[in-house]
Structure prediction request, 115 residues.
Amino acid sequence: MLRQDSLGTPQDIVSVKAAIWALGHIGSSTRGLKLLLDEEVVKDLVVLAEESPILSIRGTCFYALCLISRIPEGASTLLKEGWTTVQHSGEVKWPLVFNEDLDSLPPPPPLLLSS
Prediction:
């Protein structure tokens, strides 16, 4: 589902987003993350989060990656993919990571305006 080339209909997009949510929840456990790593799904999620022309898919991938980052193995995996994560106890109200190179963020896709 993640690796299909075309998302021709709104239903296709909804199906992909549902699959992304499921993968995020699967990857939020140690066993589940191992399954995702065996199939290189985390790399696919990172690529979609950075490059998908559909912003709602990018956002859904971001949330799925946040679920994956909640376990130490997931945070380590994402660090290898170039994504910094923050793990905190919940007692810290606003944990932040400051990135000094904001130019390294991927650009948003071009806006398609129709008249």
